[in-house]
Amino acid sequence: MSSPRTRLIHPAWIVAAVGFLALVGAAGFRSAPGVMMIPLEEEFGWGSATISLAISINILLFGLTAPFAAALMSRFGLRKVTTTALLLISAGSALSIFVTTPFMLILTWGILIGLGSGSMALVFAATITNTWFYARRGLVSGVLSAGSATGQLIFLPVMAGLVTTSGWRAASLVIAGAALAVVPLILLFMRNSPADIGVRRFGESEKVAAQVAAENAAAAPAGNPARYALTTLREAARTKTFWALAIGFAICGATTNGLIGVHFIPSAHDHGMPETTAAGLLAAVGIFDIMGTVASGWLTDRVNPRILLGIYYFGRGISLMLLPVLLSATIHPSLIVFIVIYGLDWVATVPPTIAICNEVFGKKGPIVFGWVFASHQVGASIAAVVAGIIRDQTGEYTYAWFGAATLCAVAAWISFRIRKTPTAVS
Known about the structure:
The chain is mainly α. It has a single domain (about 10-190, about 225-415), classed as MFS general substrate transporter like domains (Growth Hormone, Chain: A). The protein is about 80% helix and about 0% strand. The chain contains 18 helices and no strands. The chain has helices spanning about 10-25, 30-45, 50-75, 80-95, 100-120, 120-130, 135-165, 170-190, 205-220, 225-235, 240-255, 255-270, 275-300, 305-325, 335-345, 350-360, 365-395, 400-415. α7 (about 135-165) crosses α16. The longest helix has 30 residues, at about 365-395. The protein is globular. It starts with 10 loop residues before the first helix and ends in a 10-residue tail after the last helix.
């Protein structure tokens, strides 16, 4: 293999850059539900719970697809799986403009986009990090994780404006086009592994590369990728670390994607705030999310990731506890403080979680993270539905915010108690 020193730019950074753009392109729909809920309610007369069901299925599949996608990437490579995922997202978003019933919304928003975005979930970032990088893993996982936040930052204001001026269907078509536009970049620049082009991982010595190559050859996945993913789950589930990460990440999903991501804009609207203003605030969360996630990746290379997780969850709980008294028709400085703190914390949990998975579960770390991420989306899916029901029954989201704050305290306690000693999965 050629030495990385002979190249001006290590190919790993090119793969990471293309992966980042793919995550940005796939992130369009992640920011869409909050903007589109009210227009759908007004056009079809559907309640929050009905629309939340389609979003909940999307979120659930977004998570449950992830471990199987990781196994497919291990078997068939990054390029094929990523291309297929982007095509599914584009198709689901484009076809959604024809919906007239809740079932059709579930089919497009829920199933097609759920399967596609699940294959482009953060497990994609974990796979790139583990496959292409030996050094700077924390930083790279942080930057890639910020891809979704960057997508939110780009798409939210655009979609809010489109929904207001041209309707929600125009916004759906923009998402479809954005996902489709990334496909040529994947086909041209994405590579499945360093071995495909005769290089080592970034920061990897020749001795370590030879050792890892021998281990990978001996443990190369064969047969059904689904069986491989399920076998990995069975092995990981025997460890307390897996359950600690899974429970913590389920609470993480419930308090981000499921609650803030879906219901922040409707909640702000309930308090008299215009949708475009609320969408701008949620986009601002994306700005600080990028900063917080990259900083978290940098810290993960230097600080015990268990301590970081505990601090992140505790801070999030405090901010959610205060949110009900901060929302109003106008933007107060205290609400800006919430946006900054919550934004810095939004996906900051991902780099330390990936680091613990790789540390404890070794070469199967990305697939284990896929299952941990599945729990993230299960939590998000439940929260999306429950918050919608709370809104329909009480007329407000207050109990949802307080419940989420309590769950964050539980996640912080669990994270601090994760053992540091690796318990490798064979």
